[in-house]
Every structure is written in C-alpha cells, then in structure tokens.
C-alpha cells in the first residue's frame, strides 16, 4: 500500500490501479522479455507473441460459448432466474436475526434507502482451528437492494482511526466518525469493511457486508418439488437428500443446520435463497475427525446435469462447502466461511460458471479441475492453508479450457505452509491439464508467495497411475500490490512430464512488472519445463 497517504486517499488510488484496463501499446515492439526452454536455452522476446494470443483468444471464445450453454440450461429450471431485470425499482430488504442465534459482539450495522436507517442483523462465527487460525472470529451481515443504499458499520471496540472497504476494485468511498464507517453502494457486492489500523493480515475481527441484488424467481412454498426453509432456526441434520427436479430454498432470515447430498446422478436441481446453511453441528473440534464429516453440498456424480446454487451463505463447514460436479453448473453469489483444513470453498463440474461469489476458506477456495469453466467476479479471503486458485492435486482426467478473470483476492494469510501460493498446482495425477487463462486478477494483501506451479508427488497420489503434464497456462494482467517472502516456482516432474508453454504476461508484484526470471524471483527448473515465457508491455503500463 502506498505510504504517506490518508486512508481514504490510499483506497481511492488503489481502486483505480486495481481496476481492469483495456489494451494500450506504445509504438514499436509491444512486448519485451525472455523465453526459457527445456535444457536451459534462453531467447529474447521482442514484439508480438501470437502463439499465446491465439491460445487466449481460443479460450475466451470457447468459454463464452459455454456460458451461453449454461444459461440455456439454467433457463429450463423451474426457479432458475438469477439476474434482476433492467430497470428494477429501488428497493431494500433486510432479514431478521433468527431467534436463539446471538448477534455479533463486535459490530452493528444499519442500512438506509428512504425513511431512515434500519438495522441489519450481524452474525458472528468464532474461529475453530485455533492452533493455526490467527483470526478470532468473522462477523457478517446480509441484505438485498437495488438503487442506492447507505451503510453504516459501527465497531464496538475503541481505537479505530479510519476505515476502508475491500476489494479496492469496487471503488467504495468511505467516511469515518467516532467508531462508524459510512459508505453508499449503488451496485451489489461482497465486501470487507476494515478499520485502521487493523487492515493488514491478520485482521483479528473481520466484518463482511453481503450486499445482494434483489431476489428473483422466488420459489412457491406450496410447490411439492420445493423444500422450503422460511425465516427461523431449522435443525435437520446431515445426509439430507438432493433429488432430480428438486428446489431447496433457504429464505433470508433462515438458519439451517444441515448438509445435503446426492447419492447418485441428479439433474435439474436448484439450491437458492438469502439464508444461511451452517455446518457447526457436525464439527468435532478435531482436524482429523472432521475429515470424516460430509460436505455442505455434495453432488459428486459427474453424470449429473443442470445445477444452480445461488445466494446462500455457508458457514462453519467442518469439511468442504460446495462440491457440485454436474455438467452445466452455475454457482452464483454464494458465500462461504470456514475455518478448518479440508474446507474447500467450491468446485463445479465440466461446463461450469462460478460467478460473483465470496469465499473465505482455509483450504482451496476455487478448484479448477474439470474443464470448460469460467470463474469471474469472485472475491476471495484465503486463510493460512490452501490456495485461492487451485489448478490440480491429483487429477487423472485430461481437463482443459478455463477462463478465470476479473477476480479479487483481498487477503491471503499464508504464513507457515511452505508450498502455499495464490496460484498453485501440486499435480501428481495422470491427467494432462491444459488451456488455463487467468486474466485481470487483483491481489491486495498477501506476502507469502504468488505462484507455486509444480508436478510433484504428494501423500495422496497413486504412483501406479503415473504422471501427466500441465501445459498452455497464461497468467495475464495479474497485479499484486504487495511484496512476497517466497520465490515463485515452476517445476515439472521429469523430462517427459513437464510444465510447458507457461506464460506470464504483464504480471506485477514486488513493485516490478516481470520480464525475466530475476525480475519475477522465479525458481525455474530447466530439466522439467519448456517454453516458459515471462514478458511485459514495452509501454510501461503492465497491461495487455
């Protein structure tokens, strides 16, 4: 963060810097950098790199067509609409705190559109893996609106000197008085409200604001194919069935202790609402025992089809949050908050859209495993374990074509697990993974490592199945406004199981736009890699 600026000015400067930018090249060669080939050969990059541009254009076109396919399938669901119509009238909806669920002791929130401020209930989740978690709790509130709404977040503890809202790309201007942070929103967003001086890792008491768009296509509680959870507390337990043609609706103000599972292939399933699904009732208090617990949403059969998960908040999962391996899956505006290792955020099946979600996880936040996937508009707060973007553990499929763009990592709290990174693979599977385009990713508060990209054995791999490769990765317009302690790593397994055609195009970190191994602080193994390109725009913009 730039020094010597008032807090509000700093936020404004970084909001502009972190926002996506269009193409801009000066006269002359558009790129300069180095290409590193198998065996240690190094060649100069000076000019266009059409082989990379062609891959990026192909991925963009293919995933855009897939997003259209997914939308066509979603339109066939009984309650599949998720986007408010243009011209939706101004409105504000708050949700009651469920009886018996205590309010946060750290924050209070009011929201105002017309007629004066109204309270918005603030929940609180206490840290669970207290031997490694450096945060003490997380508070959050949720409401839905269109038009403009003024939000006031008041901190119970004294000592704050200012406030800001992340992600900076949301460009939310704040004012601060007493212990209250005030700001006006004109569009939905999943936001972190932070009080100086507690704005750097670890933030002991995070405060999140989930400012949802208005609900659309709300299910009919009398529909026999709808399982309807209205406002209030519902304790229904684990093993709740997910069946074809079913809609599970969790209304705003509902607090549901449950875990849902499909025991075989399912199709045409909707899970939506503005309420909360909690996994705290399954938490054993033990990292090892929690690995035997179910996930919150588990659709594991990859022959499943047409799934929508929208709007729901998942908290205190003892294991993973949303595993939705159906073809034609949409995960939209979902929020997850969980404390233990093995509490992955979300993964979709082949042909998936992961859009406008918030993930605060202590394992991999977004898994990119099954291909034909778009992940856009997501906001990630990574705890001490896992990666915001996980490319592979032990995938045995030949997965390809991923477009991951316009995402924000607002915090990454890595501090002790050596192989952690923002972008990570520890690929010990037999599959060949290819065609990943990461574009316009912004990282605000992280200092461990940016890239850890390897093919290597781990304790869960099956050596009898052999190893695959990873190829055609493009990291473009990656801007990390921080300094990292650990070097970036790119390493294959051996000379026939390589990391190849790996491209770092306009990547900015440590105050530098990378154009070679030294500038990017890379450890690059010439015996197991090929065609690794590190290059930047010659106009100094560090933008493509």
Can you lay out the helices and strands and say which pair or pack?
Elements: H1 7-18, E1 31-36, E2 42-46, H2 50-74, E3 91-94, E4 107-112, E5 118-119, E6 122-126, E7 137-146, E8 149-155, E9 162-166, E10 174-177, E11 180-185, E12 189-196, E13 207-212, E14 226-229, E15 232-241, E16 247-250, E17 254-262, E18 267-273, E19 276-278, H3 287-290, E20 297-299, E21 305-310, E22 313-315, E23 322-324, E24 327-332, E25 335-337, E26 346-348, E27 352-355, E28 358-361, E29 366-367, E30 373-376, E31 379-382, E32 389-392, E33 400-412, E34 423-426, E35 433-443, E36 451-454, E37 470-480, E38 488-491, E39 499-509, E40 512-513, H4 517-520, E41 522-524, E42 529-537
Parallel strand pairs: 7-13, 14-16, 15-17, 16-18, 17-19, 17-20, 18-21, 19-22, 20-23, 21-24, 22-25, 23-26, 24-27, 25-28, 27-30, 28-31, 29-32, 30-33, 31-33, 32-34, 33-35, 34-36, 35-37, 36-38, 37-39, 38-41, 39-42
Antiparallel strand pairs: 1-2, 1-42, 3-7, 4-5, 4-8, 6-7, 8-11, 9-12, 10-11, 12-13, 39-40
Question: What would you say this structure looks like, in words?
Answer:
This protein is mainly beta and 544 residues long. It contains four helices and 42 strands. It has a 25-stranded mixed sheet that branches. Strands 3, 6, 7, 9, 12 and 13 form a six-stranded mixed sheet that branches. Strands 29-32-34-36-38-41 form a six-stranded parallel sheet. A hairpin with a 2-residue loop joins strand 39 and strand 40.
Class derived from helix and strand content: mainly beta
Radius of gyration: 23 Å
First and last CA, distance: 23 Å
Tally the helices: 4
How many β-strand runs? Answer: 42
Mean pLDDT: 94
What best-fitting shape do the alpha-carbon axes yield? globular
Helix content: under 10%
**Main sheet makeup:** 25 strands, mixed
Q: Are there runs of 5+ residues with pLDDT below 50, and where?
A: 1-27
* Percent of sequence in beta strands: 35-45%
């Amino acid at each position: 963060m730039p020094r010597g600026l008032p807090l509000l000015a700093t936020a404004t400067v970084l909001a502009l810097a972190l926002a996506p930018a269009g193409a801009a090249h000066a006269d002359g060669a558009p790129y300069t950098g180095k290409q590193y080939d198998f065996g240690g050969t190094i060649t100069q990059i000076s000019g266009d790199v059409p082989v990379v541009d062609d891959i990026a254009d192909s991925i963009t076109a293919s995933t855009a067509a897939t997003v259209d396919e997914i939308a066509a399938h979603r339109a066939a669901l009984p309650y599949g609409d998720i986007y408010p119509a243009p011209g939706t009238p101004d409105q504000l909806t708050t949700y009651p705190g469920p009886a018996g669920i205590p309010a946060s002791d750290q924050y209070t929130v009011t929201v105002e559109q017309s007629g004066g401020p109204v309270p918005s209930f603030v929940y609180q989740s206490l840290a669970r893996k207290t031997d490694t978690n450096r945060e003490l709790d997380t508070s959050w509130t949720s409401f839905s609106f269109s038009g403009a709404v003024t939000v006031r977040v008041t901190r119970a503890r004294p000592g704050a000197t200012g406030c800001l809202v992340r992600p900076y790309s949301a460009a939310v201007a704040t004012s601060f008085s007493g212990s209250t942070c005030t700001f006006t929103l004109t569009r939905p967003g999943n936001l972190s409200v932070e009080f100086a001086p507690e704005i750097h890792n670890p933030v002991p008491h995070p405060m999140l604001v989930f400012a949802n768009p208005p609900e659309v296509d709300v299910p009919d509680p009398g529909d026999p194919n709808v399982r309807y959870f209205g406002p209030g507390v519902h304790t229904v337990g684990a093993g709740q069935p997910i069946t074809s043609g079913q809609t599970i609706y969790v209304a705003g103000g509902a607090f549901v202790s449950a875990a849902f599972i499909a025991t075989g292939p399912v199709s045409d399933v909707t899970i939506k609402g503005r309420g909360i699904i909690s996994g705290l009732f399954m938490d054993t208090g033990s990292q090892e025992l929690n690995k035997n617990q179910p996930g919150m949403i588990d659709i594991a059969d990859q022959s499943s089809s047409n799934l929508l998960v929208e709007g729901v908040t998942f908290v205190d999962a003892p294991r993973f949050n949303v595993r939705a391996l159906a073809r034609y899956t949409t995960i939209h505006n979902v929020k997850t908050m969980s404390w233990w290792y093995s509490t992955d955020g979300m993964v979709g099946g082949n042909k998936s859209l992961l859009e406008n979600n918030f993930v605060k996880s202590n394992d991999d936040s977004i898994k990119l495993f099954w291909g034909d996937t778009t992940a856009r508009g997501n906001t990630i707060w990574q705890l001490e374990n896992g990666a915001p973007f996980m490319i592979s553990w032990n995938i045995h499929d030949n997965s390809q074509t991923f477009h991951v763009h316009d995402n924000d990592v607002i915090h990454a709290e890595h501090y002790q697990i050596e192989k952690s990174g923002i972008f990570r693979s520890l690929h010990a599977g037999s599959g060949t993974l290819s065609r990943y385009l990461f574009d316009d990713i912004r990282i605000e508060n992280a200092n461990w490592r940016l890239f850890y990209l390897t093919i290597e054995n781990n304790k869960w791999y099956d050596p009898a199945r052999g190893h695959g490769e990873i190829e055609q990765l493009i990291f473009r317009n990656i801007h990390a406004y921080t300094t990292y302690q650990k070097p970036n790593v790119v390493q294959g397994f051996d000379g026939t199981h390589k990391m190849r055609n790996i491209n770092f195009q306009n990547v900015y970190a440590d105050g530098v736009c990378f154009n070679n191994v030294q500038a990017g602080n890379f450890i690059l193994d010439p015996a197991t890699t090929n065609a690794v390109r590190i290059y930047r725009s010659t106009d100094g913009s560090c933008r493509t």
